[in-house]
Amino acid sequence: MSRMDIMLFHSVYGLRPAVHAAAGRLREAGHHVRVPDLFEGQTAGSVEEGIELRERIGKDELLRRAVLAAAPYSDKGLVYAGFSFGASVAQTLALGDEKARGLLLLHGTSDIAEGVAVDDLPVQLHVADPDPYETHDWLNAWYLNMGRAGADVEVYRYPGAGHLFTDPELPDHDAAAAEEAWKTALGFLDSL
């Protein structure tokens, strides 16, 4: 098993105990994990509040904060990871970092900019099936575009699970799906 340096980004709920628990799980597996707080201490009690908070801060500012958080460590070859909104941030950073070692997406993806090219970047996505935020049509197009960009993508779908099914603090939580996702994700990290 190789020890990875992981940059783990939170969802629109903000940096809550569930994100720290996930980071703890990764640390117990031997990885070094950083969990930047893109909302600077603010958290949301609902998806709607989180989306409002994200929009109030603004996409450009959130991306600036993410880049600043990752920059001091990116020369080591980071694995970028995130939950939902945080997964979209992780994807954006990983696709722009030629030294990225991998990309672990939990519950989310993002648009892929024109002309992006990576050299066999290992990518693993865990997503509910169906997922209102990650529809089948969107995911099919995303998968093809990631492949065209040069990523080596694995997609794991979890039938009947809620959107943020790995988060034990939310109604979406599905313990069996979460355990399966974490087991697969830890195997992915060990393979890098």
List keywords for this structure.
192 residues; globular; Rossmann fold; alpha/beta
Structure description:
With 192 residues, the chain is an alpha/beta fold. It has a single domain, classed as 3-Layer(aba) Sandwich (Rossmann fold), CATH 3.40.50.1820. It contains six helices and six strands. Strand 3, helix 4 (85-95) and strand 4 form a beta-alpha-beta unit. The longest helix has 17 residues, at 175-191. It is globular, with a radius of gyration of 15 Å. 41% of the residues are buried.
List the helices and strands and how they pair.
Elements: E1 5-9, H1 17-28, E2 32-34, H2 47-57, H3 59-70, E3 79-83, H4 85-95, E4 102-106, E5 122-129, H5 136-149, E6 152-159, H6 175-191
Parallel strand pairs: 1-2, 1-3, 3-4, 4-5, 5-6
Entry summary:
This protein is of the alpha/beta class. The protein has helices at 17-28, 47-57, 59-70, 85-95, 136-149, 175-191; strands at residues 5-9, 32-34, 79-83, 102-106, 122-129, 152-159.
